Structure formats: C-alpha cells, structure tokens
Amino acid sequence: MKLITQHEITKYVEDHIQSFHQRRIESLQKLKLMDVIKRKNPYLFKAKDINCASDFVKKILDARLSSQEETIFGDFLEGLAIFINTKVFDGHKSSAEGIDLEFEKDNIRYIVSIKSGPNWGNSSQISKLKDNFRKAKRIIGTNQSAINVVAINGCCYGKSRNHDKGEYLKYCGQTFWEFISGDSNLYTEIIEPLGHQAKERNEQFKMEYDNVINKFPGEFISRFCDNNGQILWDEVIKFNSSDKTS
Fold first, then answer.
1. What CATH code would you report for 91-192?
2. Which of 61, 159, 167, 242 is the most buried (most CB within 10 A)?
3. What pLDDT, in 10s, does the model give residues 134-152?
C-alpha cells in the first residue's frame, strides 16, 4: 500500500471536474424538445394537473437534465476512484464486462463494479451484475487458479448496513472510499476540490438553461396547444406513444 497526497487528489479533481461541467453544458445545448417529450411519461404530468405549457416544459426538462447529470457525474466519480486506487494499490480499470476496477490487497484479487449510489438498479440489473461477477471470476480463475477473487459493488455515496449480498459485497459511501484508498477520511476530503470554479461554470450553465427555457415553450405551444392556449393532451400522448409517429 502506498500513500496518495491531498495535493494529488485535488489536482485530479480540479483537472477533471471541468469535463463534468462541459458535458453538462454540451448536453443541454444539444437537447431537442421533441426528444425530451418522447422520453418522459406524459400521463404523469396530466395526472399532476399541469396545464401551463411553460410549467410542463420546465418539469420535463429538469427531469431529463437531472438524469443526465447523475450519469455524467457518476462517470467522474468512477474515474476518481480508479485514479486513487491506482496510486494506492496499483489497481487498474478492468477489461471484463461490467467490471470497472481490479486490484490486489492482502493476497485477494478484488473485482469492483462502481455505481453512484446504493439504489442504482432493479432486479434484472442486479442479476446482470451477478452474472458479470461470475464471468470475471471464471476468467481470472482460469488464468490464476490459486488466487482468491472477491466481488465488490462499490457505491460512491450512501450506506449499506448489510455488506454481504451472497455472491458479492456491497460497500457504500465512507466504507467504499476507505476500501479503495485505505483512508477513512477520504469521503470528506474530496468535497472541497469539487467546488473548483463551480460558481463560474454553473453561471455558464444557467445562461444556456435560460435560453432553452425561453425557447422550448414557444415550440411546445405551436405544436401541442389550441388557439386558446390549452394543452392538447391527446396530441402529446399520440406524439409520445402512437405507433404512427416516428
């Protein structure tokens, strides 16, 4: 086990957090209203009695952006975890399907699948995770029959009181960050660097967001509202779900 300095962590975060901010802005710039409508549940918004075009547009836009940001930031945290583990335990990004990180500690080969938070998947996704672990174990066992392989589902935030999931262990939050680094305080030490240029980059994002919020309602009204300004929910549903729309 080697040591990693706070300076090294801070430099990595400051260098790579810019990619998160840039991808947020680029994904917003590329968004098309009709694509967003296709991917959201219009029945839900009707059930919530949303009858204002601008409210509808803002809610579906915010839902889409929130989902995208979770994915983009998850990619960043995965990269950070691999970087730290590489410095401390000589780990490396795995080539096995569904496995993000491999490293050895105390004569155990760990295979790690990294997720953002503890509630990341449904039953079929968890079954796929188990299948990926089995395949990776078989491959490693074929190449190195004497090695003990342990599968880990690592989550960057949250808690998991029951670590033992049968075929794998689940480590979340502080437990995960300590596991990949040997530092019980790492989960709080990465907070401060995340704020690097956050104000400036979020101001840029806000400008792009305001542009979209100003543009999309007009597009929605021209396509999905009658002459009195009422939302034509039948048309929204047809666009979203009809077999006759592309």
1. 3.40.1560.10
2. 61
3. 999 998 877 666 789 999 9
Bridge partners for 92 per DSSP: 102
Q: What is the pLDDT of residues 70-101, one digit of tens each?
A: 999 999 999 999 999 999 999 998 888 999 99
Asked if 129 and 98 touch (Cβ cutoff 8 Å), the reply is: yes
Residue 112 in tokens: 């790690």
Question: How do the domains of the chain map onto residue ranges?
Answer: 1-87+197-246, 91-192
Contact 77, 156 (CB under 8 A): yes
Beta-sheet strand order (sheet of 108-115): 92-93, 101-105, 108-115, 148-155, 169-172
What residues have CB less than 8 Å from 165, skipping those under 6 apart?
A: 153
- 68 contact partners, CB below 8 Å, separation of at least 6: 24, 27
Beta bridge partners of 93: 101
Helices (H), the chain: 6-30, 33-38, 42-47, 53-89, 123-143, 174-181, 186-189, 198-224, 233-241
